[in-house]
Backbone:
């Protein structure tokens, strides 16, 4: 399932001035453009105690989910987004309303389920949280209470994983709020072109890739990468990490979004495991982009291969 079209824009930074039920109601009733800087004291990015997730499979143990104060930006458990309906079916057996069909639940855990993407191929899957999380703009993702969905996606998609992506090179990606159709967080587990892998390794040889998260937002680590046929080059900020142990959402906000006064809702994030002829090379390229960059993009669909 690749995302297309424009989602309803979420006025993220209005959350700063709001608190409690009155603030939530005001935010949900408000309308305005995405954008604006966030201060370091932004309560949307403060550490928050995690609630127990209302959607954990029986016997699977507790799962950390956004507490009630994040619902204006992260969604409510009673929402009826089609992908969230799929989660409810896989976890609770709640049949989605017609004409939506029952999903094929490929794997379930306390933190996530894995589904087929569309079109259904052996290199197109989705990792979907069992928590109600609309997407990348949900501030809870940047806290220590959130699950490490990126590492979960890699552990399942890699060779030998539970749902391996059958493609020479693997790509993991999430779309911005602007470029998705479904309003439940989902990480695409798909293929990526050999030319993309080669381009990233060439950039690394030229020292054009940041090796410290604090340098990720530097213009010297922005590079053009050719995507799908006919889509042309797009500009990405490129970081290399030795593993996926760190919270990528936190790194993106702390070192790219907040310093430049950008908006998380406009970001796309892509992870490309480094591969050689011998297989996985033990590190990851992490790409971010948005429409503030010259030839930037708000979607991961230019680089991922679904068909």
Residues:
């Amino acid at each position: 399932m690749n995302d297309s079209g424009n989602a309803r824009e979420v006025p993220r930074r209005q959350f700063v001035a709001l608190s409690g039920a009155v603030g939530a109601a005001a935010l949900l009733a408000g309308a305005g453009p995405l954008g604006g800087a966030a201060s370091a004291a932004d309560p949307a990015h403060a550490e928050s105690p995690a609630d127990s997730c209302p959607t954990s499979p029986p016997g699977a143990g507790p799962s950390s989910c956004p507490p009630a104060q994040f619902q204006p930006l992260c969604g409510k458990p009673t929402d009826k987004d089609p992908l969230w309906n799929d989660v409810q079916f896989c976890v609770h057996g709640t049949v989605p309303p017609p004409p939506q069909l029952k999903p094929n639940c490929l794997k379930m855990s306390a933190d996530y389920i894995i589904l087929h993407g569309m079109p259904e191929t052996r290199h197109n899957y989705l990792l979907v949280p069992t928590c109600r999380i609309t997407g990348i703009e949900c501030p809870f993702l940047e806290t220590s209470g959130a699950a490490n969905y990126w590492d979960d996606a890699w552990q399942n998609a890699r060779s030998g994983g539970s749902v391996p992506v059958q493609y020479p090179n693997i790509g993991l990606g999430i779309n911005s709020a602007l470029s998705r159709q479904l309003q439940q967080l989902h990480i695409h587990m798909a293929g990526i072109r050999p030319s993309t892998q080669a381009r990233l390794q060439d950039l690394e040889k030229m020292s054009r890739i940041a090796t410290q998260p604090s340098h990720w937002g530097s213009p010297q680590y922005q590079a053009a990468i050719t995507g799908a046929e006919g889509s042309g080059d797009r500009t990405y900020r490129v970081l290399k990490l030795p593993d996926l142990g760190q919270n990528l959402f936190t790194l993106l906000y702390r070192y790219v979004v907040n310093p430049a006064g950008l908006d998380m809702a406009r970001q796309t994030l892509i992870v490309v495991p480094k591969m050689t002829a011998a297989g996985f090379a033990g590190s990851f390229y992490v790409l971010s982009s948005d429409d503030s960059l010259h030839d930037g993009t708000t979607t991961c669909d230019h680089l991922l291969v679904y068909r």
